[in-house]
Amino acid sequence: MFQRVINDKLKIIKLPLPFLTLGQRWFLKSLLLCCGHLVRTEHFNPEAITNDPLIFAFNHNSSYETILVPSYLIALRRGRKISFLIDWMFGYLPVLAWIFRQTEPIYVYNKKSDLKFLNRFRVKPNSATVYEQCLHKLNNNQSIGIFPEGTRNRNPESLIKGRKGIGYIALHSQVPVLPIGIDFPSRLKKGRIPKFGPLILRTGSMMHFDQEIAIYQQVNRSLFIHPLLKRKITDYLCAKVTYAVMKELANLAHKQYPFPKPVPPVAMNGFFLDPTLTEKILI
What we know:
alpha/beta, 7 strands, globular, disordered N terminus
């Protein structure tokens, strides 16, 4: 459905965006009129992506997609915003800062800027604060967007190892993850990720982690599991969720994910923690 809208300039102009301001509508439609034709979708379900709250997960190839893909999805959601986790330095760059602010982003301070003069504005990284912001938005029926690779990955064949933060957020919020693979059709022919050009968005099935969430809750409620073991179990569950998301993103992006499946820890009481058998965890 939306593929026809993207290719029809009149329909883009008339596209209703009731959740955006006049300025935001103007910018979004202008961007789609210029670049919307570069996006092709596969297996897209317009209804699924509007079921807020959601955790949108993407592989990350280039800077260019960080503007076009969110804009495309927000238009497809009729103006419902997605708050993306983005590097803090983009909040200080002219024009780009305004563009990213329109999505009400969550800034991440892990990396230093290549523009050294900007580093004086960088605050001390605090993962807890980032998680709190993500959970706050999800608890208020707002969706967030995450690139679990954590950085641009210019490898045309493989994904970078996913960071466990998306696993923690999914477990703690109990919100499903919707994986969307970003693929550049020319990457294999050119042997690299193009800086600009046509891209494909492939949407996977909604990922629910009910079993992992149940174990996560039981472990954290327990008064009889040592705190160190709780941490090991939690880390494993976060890694397990992240691994599942990354494997699906690799499939959708038509890339490899060359990392082993997480191994569950051995419980201190001698029981082997089997994530499918919660009764083996002393609670």
